[in-house]
């Protein structure tokens, strides 16, 4: 699930874009990278794993993650997780191209 909090169209500038993203227990995102933007994730709820350039990193509520432009990454939650992984994702600048691996 994705909720668009701040988009270039909504706020009138391409300087930033923000979304709230939720991955259900036992789900994942495909490996991808964002061309032309840095982005951050702040974990609001739950736990999961971010895989950055092939290296897994555990995530839990309160963690902040940084992705540099073109960094290959993806996320997943375990089948045994107690709750969904929910995070705010902020892109700087707001416009970027998503490339799937």
Question: What is shown here, in short?
Answer:
The chain is mainly beta and 101 residues long. The protein is built from one helix and ten strands.
Shape: globular
Secondary-structure element series: EHEEEEEEEEE
Q: What is the first-to-last residue Cα distance?
A: 21 Å
**Largest sheet, described in full?**
5 strands, antiparallel
Q: What strand order characterises the main sheet?
A: 1-2-9-4-7
> How many strand segments?
10
Low-pLDDT runs of 5+ residues are none
User: What fraction of residues sit in β-strands?
Assistant: over 45%
Category from helices, strands and their pairing = mainly beta
Query: Mean of the pLDDT scores?
Result: 93
* Rg, alpha carbons: 13 Å
Number of helices: 1
What fraction, in percent, of the residue positions are helical?
A: under 10%
Please provide a written account of the structure:
It is built from one helix and ten strands, in the order E-H-E-E-E-E-E-E-E-E-E. The chain is mainly beta and 101 residues long. The strands form three sheets. Strands 1-2-9-4-7 form a five-stranded antiparallel β-sheet. Strands 6-5-8 form a three-stranded antiparallel β-sheet, with no helix packed on it. Strand 5 and strand 6 form a beta hairpin.
């Amino acid at each position: 699930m994705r909720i668009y909090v701040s988009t270039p169209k909504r706020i009138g500038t391409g300087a930033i874009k923000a979304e709230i993203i939720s991955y259900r227990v036992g789900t994942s995102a495909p490996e991808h990278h964002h061309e032309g933007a840095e982005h951050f994730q702040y974990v609001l709820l739950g736990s999961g794993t971010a895989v950055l350039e092939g290296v897994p990193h555990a995530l839990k509520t309160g963690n902040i993650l940084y992705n540099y432009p073109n960094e290959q990454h993806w996320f997943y939650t375990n089948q045994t997780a107690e709750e969904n992984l929910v995070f705010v994702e902020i892109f700087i600048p707001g416009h970027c191209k998503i490339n799937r691996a």
